[in-house]
Design goal:
Elements (H helix, E strand, L loop, with lengths): L28 E8 L2 E9 L4 H10 L3 H14 L4 H6 L2
Antiparallel strand pairs: 1-2
Length: about 90
Amino acid sequence: MTDDVFTEPDDPTDGWIDVRMTDPDAGEWDVDVVVAGGRVEFVDLRIRPALLAGFIDCLAADLGETRARDILATAARRQGVEPADLATGE
């Protein structure tokens, strides 16, 4: 087994988002990882609903405003919600 750990990329760009647990003992989220052949093959991140807005804020803080809007609009559309509908509350 290696001593590799997850670290920040050497060249952070819009392609990377840095999110850290601020209090692991508080159980802010639960991570399941599948390792096969010495490689991480799957990561399942579960976040308590009460912490979800703060988690999304943390993700968006690492992005420029345009990129954050694009990601949120894409996520909304995948759920069948048009971004314009969010402003009207439909």
